[in-house]
Design a protein that fits this description.
Elements (H helix, E strand, L loop, with lengths): L1 H17 L4 E9 L2 E9 H8 L11 H6 L1 H9 L2 E5 L2 E2 L2 E11 L2 E11 L7 E5 L10 E8 L2 E7 L5 E4 L6 H18 L1 H11 L4 E4 L2 E4 L3 H27 L7 H20 L7 H23 L6 H30 L3 H28 L7
Parallel strand pairs: 1-8
Antiparallel strand pairs: 1-2, 2-6, 3-4, 3-7, 5-6, 7-10, 8-9, 11-12
Helix pairs in contact: 1-11, 5-10, 6-8, 7-9, 7-10, 8-9, 8-11
Length: 373
């Protein structure tokens, strides 16, 4: 039993460490041989990387940021490269500002680059914060002749290549679809919420105990209702929020998402909802939709392909979600009758999920960092 407890604690520790919502937002505009850029970088991340709080009072002032402008630029631009047709396009700082995003204050670094000629292909290398935060993401918008392509830089995808002349509405659709898939796969809170609802799908709560379902069709129908409800719900709020119809504070949304994970996992330990988990999926799916929308909004919806990008991202989220379900359900059905599934996977897994999500909830609601890197 002690070995299982140790494994669960290790999982909880890993998941908490893994969940670090750290992003930067990079916008590049290509006009002939000239590239202009704006890079929004969270002050909290720069504080961790180079230290901005000179007097150590826990508050970063404009004066402290201004005093470190040269250091910020040197640190950031050393971790960004732009090559046009395999030749370097040197980056030069053109300005500094501070802006407020939904999750706090950001340094706005403006810069420009001159390539030797108007490039037919651009390769961008991105390494910001990867040395100490493996979950950091760089969200890029590349603009060329009114069209925008969006993508995400991660440690696994730190160099990416574009051919500006090939940007099209269809490529925008595919780009946003790819980012939707990627977002659900790295969205640990969304994955744990979904898994919390799926874990009991191959079991039946009867006479105060979990019993294995008799047929795969029963489990499949339960999963179908859960996934459909979650999809419909988050599609509604994703669309409304991304189009600017409804806006909620990021801290409130992220806290509510963490709370939804806690409640969904607790229901596996003390079943109250039972066969109506699809109702839970719909209700909390509305909340998760706002979380998806915050990423999409920061990526930037192109005005000339607004609906196309929104549909592409949403379909990408669904594709990523269905991949998870397809990998989980057959294995869970195969294991459902044994003690391992009920005691370790369902009970132990739900305890681990509650532990992780409670830490997220406390961190997000109180703006704390309980586990530091």
């Amino acid at each position: 039993m002690s070995r299982w407890l140790a494994a669960l604690l290790l999982f909880a520790s890993f998941a908490v460490e893994a969940h670090k919502p750290s992003d930067s937002y990079l916008h590049l505009k290509l006009e002939g041989a000239r590239i202009t850029g704006q890079w929004d970088i969270a002050l909290r991340d720069l504080e961790q990387a180079i230290g901005l709080d000179a007097n150590g009072d826990g508050e970063i002032t404009w004066g402290e940021v201004r005093a470190r402008h040269a250091d910020i630029a040197a640190y950031a631009l050393a971790r960004l490269s732009v090559d046009g047709d395999a030749r370097s396009c040197p980056l030069q700082v053109t300005g500094h500002e501070v802006d407020q995003h939904s999750d706090g204050a950001y340094e706005v670094l403006r810069f420009a680059a001159e390539c030797e000629t108007a490039p037919a292909a651009i390769e961008i290398g991105y390494r910001l914060f990867f040395d100490f935060d493996a979950q950091h993401k760089g969200l890029l918008n590349l603009e060329y002749q009114g069209r925008i392509q969006s993508l995400v830089f991660t440690p696994e995808r730190s160099r990416q290549r574009f051919e500006p002349g090939e940007l099209s509405a269809w490529r925008q659709f595919l780009s946003y679809g790819r980012e939707g898939v990627w977002h659900i796969w790295i969205g640990y809170d969304h994955i744990l919420f979904l898994l919390s609802l799926l874990l009991p799908a191959v079991l039946l709560w009867d006479e105060r105990q979990w019993l294995p379902v008799a047929r795969f069709g029963v489990a499949f129908l339960d999963v179908f209702k859960i996934v459909t409800s979650f999809t419909v719900a988050h599609s509604i709020t994703l669309s409304l929020a991304a189009l600017g119809v409804i806006s909620l504070p990021s801290r409130l949304v992220e806290s509510a998402i963490a709370a939804s994970v806690v409640l969904a996992a607790l229901n596996n330990l003390i079943p109250l909802v039972g066969g109506r988990r699809w109702v839970v999926a719909f209700f909390f799916g509305l909340v998760h939709g706002f979380g998806f929308a915050s990423v999409l909004a920061e990526l930037g919806l192109p005005r000339n392909a607004l609906v196309l990008a929104l549909v592409g991202f949403n379909l990408g989220v669904e594709a990523g979600q269905l991949t998870i379900v397809a990998a989980f359900l057959p294995l869970a059905y195969f294991l459902r009758a044994g003690w391992f599934y009920r005691r370790v996977v369902l009970f132990g897994g739900s305890i681990a999920i509650v532990t992780v999500a409670m830490i997220w909830l406390i961190e997000r609601a109180l703006n704390l960092k309980l586990i530091s890197a």
